[in-house]
Amino acid sequence: MQKGLLLVISGPAGSGKGTVNAHLLKTGRFVYSVSATTRAPRPGEVDGVNYHYITREDFADRIANGGMLEYTEYCGNFYGTPKKEAEEVLASGKNLILEIEVEGAKQVKSKFPDAILILLLPPSFRAQETRLRGRGTETEDKILERLARTREELKEIDAYDYVVLNEDGEDLTAAEDILAIVRAEQHHLRRNSDVATRYFAD
User: Fold this and answer.
1) CA–CA separation, 33 vs 6, rounded Å?
2) What is the distance between the terminal CA atoms of the chain, rounded to a whole angstrom?
3) Which terminus of the chain has fewer Cβ atoms in its 10 Å neighbourhood, N or C?
């Protein structure tokens, strides 16, 4: 059985990551990565579903022993992707989706070079701004902050392997584009280096 692929799907606010990833999960071929955190569960949150809730000591041990694919500290708590859980998903043949930002994506690539880094973008910066304003859920300062962050993140675009544009109303097409990337990567020779041996095995 061929191992699953590790996909990092990044994108600025308004790129539609959640909707596109939901389409991928519906295929039954993908698993959404559950991050680990040192913060306490909030009411209604379930361990192993929302996060893997672990102690600060456990998290520090995992960092020291190479047990985190990526991690960051935010508001006094650690958040990251546990390596062991990720490897178990990939060994099962399922593809694992990590929805993380560019710094985490670069950490993953350095520790797991086989990871596929995909940047999901709105069709344009103007379209992104229109989407953010259309939400009607954030202050002007927050919108400007998100747009400024996008300018900074796109300076790191060379860290990614693929870019997928999520046109307005075309989130299913964007998901199909990612599926096409997955199919191509599954047939890449570096993932099938033993093909000649298997071919003559019968």
Assistant:
1) 10
2) 17
3) C
Q: What are the angstrom distances between the C-alpha of 21 and each of 7, 15, 73, 189?
A: 11, 11, 25, 27
User: Of 87, 93, 91, 95, nearest to 69 (Cα)?
Assistant: 87
Binned at pLDDT 50, 70 and 90, residue 202 comes out as confident
Residue found by looking up tokens 């099938």 in the block: 192
pLDDT in tens, 171-191: 999 999 999 999 999 999 988
Find, among 159, 160, 162, the residue nearest to 180 by Cα.
Answer: 162
**What DSSP letter does each residue of 1-46 carry, written as one string?**
-PPP-EEEEE--TTS-HHHHHHHHHHTTSEEEPPPEESSPPPTT--
**What region, left, alpha or beta, does residue 66 occupy, with left being phi > 0 and alpha being psi -120 to 50 degrees?**
left
User: Which residue do the tokens 């996008």 mark?
Assistant: 150
Model-wide pTM > 0.85: yes
Integer angstrom CA distances of residue 115 from 35, 182, 191: 17, 11, 12
Question: What is residue 169's predicted lDDT score, i.e. its pLDDT?
Answer: 93
Q: Are 171 and 17 in contact (CB under 8 A)?
A: no
Contact (Cβ atoms closer than 8 angstroms) between residue 132 and residue 174: no
Contact by Cβ (8 Å): 135, 70? no
Q: How far is CA 124 from CA 131, 160, 166, 174, 176, in A?
A: 11, 18, 10, 15, 20
